[in-house]
């Protein structure tokens, strides 16, 4: 299928600012659908979408499921631990067998960086990257951008600091590429052991102290420590990490102004973020979850060949 985004959504690094803006603008009319009594439009009726998750996921998988159901698509969920993959079947064999069943799209999460592109090059169905290794997580980056734009009414010129485990974070990379393409000023903050070696080449400001990052930023996007990807030695202890880099109410109060708080989840409360910050008045963490469904609806719609200017009409088509 030809679409404004091309065949697949594999990352934000390869998208233009106009393409990112197109997705955000298309998501806007879809946000209202979630507020209705009947949360469904017939836009993708007849389409079949497979959610192929090789890594555990709750938020992303459920968000994609809601998006698919609200567009009236037929969806099938496959977890690798319960599939032929656990018996030794390759990624390509799995996808080709699925494609032989005449599916239209695959949403894939995989532990290997580049897995989504590897798959997209080998099947004709649309492929959406739901997170691949430490590479990218484009729909999370897009929903973060939409949440920031909702609050600030623009992205150009705002200062956003990504705090925490940047080294292991695909969310961080999608945010960096997406924010920069939309004209935002990007910083990162965390222990040097949790920043990529190439961070100095990514066009971001590096902060060594969380206090400096809070003082500088309009918004903080706080990442969890991905302990499952660490073999040890990255930080002395969780308590020490919270003491030095934790985003606390006390630290925020010192700057005497509002700093927007985002977190892609799941949160390690009391480690990278304290509960009174996560649940505080400047937190938009639940807005991120709401926006995630609308962004994923927009991506599904555009990749299926939907016209951006018809998104509003598509929304109205489901009104009763």
Walk me through the structure.
This protein folds into 2 domains: 17-136 and 291-305, 3-Layer(aba) Sandwich (Rossmann fold), CATH 3.40.50.1370; 138-288, Rossmann fold, CATH 3.40.50. 37% of the residues lie in helices and 14% in strands. The protein is built from 12 helices and 9 strands. The chain has helices at 17-31, 59-70, 91-99, 115-120, 138-152, 170-181, 210-216, 238-245, 249-253, 275-278, 285-303, 311-317, and strands spanning 48-53, 74-79, 105-110, 126-132, 159-163, 185-189, 205-207, 219-222, 260-262. Strands 7-6-5-8-9 form a 5-stranded parallel beta sheet. The chain has a 4-stranded parallel beta sheet with strand order 2-1-3-4. Helix 1 crosses helix 11 (285-303) and helix 2 packs across helix 11. The longest helix is centred in the last third of the chain and has 19 residues, at 285-303. The radius of gyration is 19 Å and the shape is globular.
Question: Quick gist of this model?
Answer:
The protein is of the alpha/beta class. It contains twelve helices and nine strands. It has two domains: 17-136 and 291-305, Aspartate/ornithine carbamoyltransferase (Rossmann fold, 3-Layer(aba) Sandwich), CATH 3.40.50.1370; 138-288, 3-Layer(aba) Sandwich (Rossmann fold), CATH 3.40.50.1370.
